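Before going further, it is useful to explain how the protein records used in this thesis are read. An example of such a record is reproduced below.

***
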Amino acid sequence: MAQATLVDSNLRLVFETGVNEKGEPIFKGKMYSNLKHEATAGQIYQAAQALGALCKDPLYTVERTDRSDIMA
């Protein structure tokens, strides 16, 4: 039976930086590496809100990316 081992977690904050000539929003992302594997969604969201408050552009979304090694 195969098993997955969590290797790496990253946090990405996406900010809305303005609009283009068509009136569509422009987004810019900021990546934070080495997120603690034990971090809950609530803890990540709280940290993202605190980091977002330090930026001039409004926080649009918060993303977590996990990478795992799968072995037999």
User: Anything to note?
Assistant: The mean pLDDT is 95. The two ends are 6 Å apart (CA to CA).
